[in-house]
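Practice problem 4.
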């Protein structure tokens, strides 16, 4: 078998190895996904609040969405836009931070202690 053991890869038999693959988060995909998720969650919560108004589901929206009031069409669309914007906010902060940390090898089993 030309001195190559069955457990060796072609690269390791030749004395070369691949650089470790860096995990990267696609920020645009995360932004669109989170924004859509937050907007859909907002719509579902508003619908649930209309079906069961005694539960007081609108109270958190009043705290987290500036200018949102229960419930007018302009306020609904403002809440929808703000929910979508929060998804992009998370993606634009989290995505590059994750990519930075992953590129530096600070995360994962090789980068340091996970204890």
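Answer key:
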């Amino acid at each position: 078998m030309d001195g190559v053991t069955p457990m060796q890869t072609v690269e390791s038999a030749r004395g070369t190895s691949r650089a470790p693959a860096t995990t990267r988060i696609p920020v645009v995909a995360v932004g669109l996904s989170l924004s859509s998720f937050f907007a859909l969650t907002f719509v579902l919560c508003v619908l649930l609040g209309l079906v069961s108004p005694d539960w007081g589901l609108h109270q958190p929206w009043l705290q987290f969405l500036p200018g949102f009031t229960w419930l007018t069409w302009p306020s609904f669309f403002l809440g929808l836009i703000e929910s979508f914007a929060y998804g992009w906010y998370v993606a634009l902060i989290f995505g590059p931070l994750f990519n930075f940390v992953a590129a530096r090898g600070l995360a994962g089993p090789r980068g340091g202690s996970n204890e």
